[in-house]
Model the fold of this input.
Amino acid sequence: MSQQHVFGATDGDWICRVCGLPLEQRKARAHYMGGAFDLSIPCCPKCGQYFVPRELARGKMRELEKILEDK
Done:
């Protein structure tokens, strides 16, 4: 069973710019260079657009990218 990481705001803290609805935490699977991991990030319940928080994009994803590229 894989570990799931939660990133970003809690439910209702962000609004979808297109739909005007509050974002909800949704499960997602990130794939990179043949690897995959589960996470929970804010997503619009109507259009399905995910919001990738800065802490994820500049922090954890950058760390993962460096580790995978060094191999």
Notes: The beta strands are 4-6, 24-32, 35-43. The chain has one domain: 4-70. The CA atoms of residues 23 and 44 lie 5 Å apart. Residues 4-70 form a domain with the Ubiquitin-like (UB roll) fold (CATH 3.10.20).
